[in-house]
Input
Amino acid sequence: MKHLLTKISFIALITVLISSCNTVKRVPDGKNLLTKNEIFVDSIKTNDVKLYNQLYQKPNIKLVGIPIRLHIYNLAKPKPDSAYQRWLTKTPKREKRLINFLSKKQVDRLGSAYTSFNEWIKTTGETPVIIEDARAKRSAQRLKSYYWNNGWFNIETDYDIIEVDNKRGQIKFFTYPHKPYFIDSLHLKIESKVADSIYQLTRDESTIISGKQYKTLDIEAERDRITNVYRNSGLYHFEKEFIKFDADTVNTDHKVHLNLLINNRQVTKGDSTSKVAFKVHTISKVNVFTDYKYEYRNEAPKDSFYYKGYNIYSFDKLKFNRRAITNAILITPGEIYRDKDRTLTYNQISNLRTFKYPNIQYELDPTDTTSSSLIANVLLTPRKKYSANFEFDITTSEIQAFGIGFGGSLLIRNVFRGAETLEISGRGSIGSSKDAAITSGSDSFFNISEIGADVKLSFPRILFLFNTSGIIPKYMSPTSNLVFGINVQQNIGLDKQNASGTFNYIWEPSKKLTHQIDLVNIQYVRNLNTKNYFNIYETSFNRLNTIARDVLDSNSTLFNQDTSNPTTIDNALLTIPTGTNNFISQSLGDNPDPDLDTEQLQDIRNIQERKNRLTEDNLIFASNYTFLRNTRENLYDENFSRFRAKIELAGNVLSTIAGLAGLSQNSNDRYTIFGVEFSQYIKTEVGYIKHWNLGRRNVLAFRVFGGIAIPYGNANSIPFARSFFGGGPNDNRAWLAYDLGPGSTGGRNEFNEANMKIATNIEYRYNILGALHGAFFIDAGNIWNVLDNVEEEEAVFSGAKDLQEIAVGSGLGLRYDFDFFVLRLDLGFKTFNPANDEDQRWFKGYNFTEAVYNVGINYPF
Output
């Protein structure tokens, strides 16, 4: 408590010092620093953010009420060169002593460094916002435009600059909107009969609605809509500039009579200009050049094919399957011209990863005397057939004193001449661990290792028994992927071998939607060093050893008998694995030690169940479906939502086969494949993320997640690889990964996990200065066991009352944006800890000694 008060006092002192700095230090005489803007609508003050966003001048950005970046800017010298020279010559012998000690060149460099540092301070800080009458006038005019564009045509605005004190001032803006105008009618004046008929077909979709308040944005949206309709209905020559609107508001009782004007396009030939009516253009030919280069522009292709209406050309021997090429091109001979076909073709060809960004050109077909036919030329430039990359890194952690990681991948394009890609990747690491040395007794420096490899073969189409183009057309960018992977670990754990295989389909009906079906998803996990279990899971060992001390004599053969240190009941340790396994077997057998009480027997049973589940080999044969809707336009879009849902079924196929084949069950009444009990369960996950852009680089981010996995049939628990965990840098940051839950147990095991999870997060992100950002967050959630083999009441979710066990963490963080990734540091405090006694749950972990520090890459959601 004493240290906490010291830190609070220090922070308060720094805050007072900063706030006491002279904010008007760099404000010229006769000028005022803008400290506040106020907007009044009909003499009533408003806090409408949309109105304040119209102002050209805004006060300097503040953090906790203090303009920190302004104070940083004020630290810089206006003329650093002169300031350095004054300092250098302030005392008669200073410059001479420095030259003798450094050199004349180094003294000059010192001055340059001082100037550069001074410039860095300026760019890091923020210049004072000086009140300017011209900008205030422009702000008032912009407010007027905002209201006018939203239907208040009689808007009046004014402003008043008020000098507060000592070079500080504020601006008050006054607006008088008066009565708004509403859309009354829309009249059409479209010269082209073709354009008029197309418009009539989609008139019901118009954004201009009678009775709605006038908005310029609705007019612009209608222009965009009409342009999009025409450009995708064959009107190749149509442009947005051909659309004009005029409005009649004279003596209309605040109603707007709109006229939509679309004139025929003007065409100039020589010295004469004439009007030409818009017409529907059709695609007469599609020419595809599969190996185009700029130097080939004047050469004739050497190889050509005609396939389903497409002319396929090659300047060398054709290296691509004709079907693969035409499947990637959405521009179809005989159909009308559509802008979206060109866009979809761009996307489809880019998704192949076989060609560079394509060049698509249209030209009028010279053989068509009506000038209504187009020839589409698709110019493709292949990428190199092979590409490779390599990775190397050095790591250190609490477990691994020193580690070397390495990896690489090889990408092979157009493997079977159908634009397929084959990616072969490998990874590995070796390291040194004291824990591993103690466990194994080895004196080798590199005593832990991991190696793995993956092979992925992608096909740009759906591979199925029948043609699926009617269900999943080619514009959805369908892809089939065949993936194999293997991984082998030798470390302080159970030395796992992991093999997996997946065959899936992915397609995108629109820019926002993605569907994925894993038709087959197989994973086999084998534990090679199960005897090491109690060396890894020390909590389980300590609980088991405590019980053994209570019921066994110190001279029991199950304890380690050290001749150099006589064993007493206080230092007795069960031998691993013989003593631990035998004690469990005896305790859960027909003749348990009579001194064991019911609670101790249940503890041993829980320890055994957890040991069996974490050391058993797993065979997972699953299928799953994932739905994703993401409205994010790009990496810089901070106004978006993302919804993801997944359902997975495992073991049903193997269970059916085992039943039909009449396979016998083992002693656990379960089927085995190759000696392994296969998993059977149903699992579902639902997640939603929403970001709100609050302006000025402030973002509010929200996430909610729920998941549950229910074992049945051939299993009574969920494999570790498919279970849920809580805590960590991307979850509830007040707990370390795997430390939270299940329920109110307090995470007493290593690697706590369960088969049900609820999580929600909210985070406010703001800019501090430059690339440095800050955040405040609240995380809530927990994991529970439900409908599996865990019987511990504190860990099991049995009803809505257990929602009281949702853990809450809160805290703050720093992020530094390196453009290509974000380095993140979060400090989480246990705000509500369900593992504590009921009167000790709130804010008992809210101190720096119990805080959890998380380092992560990129944002958690």
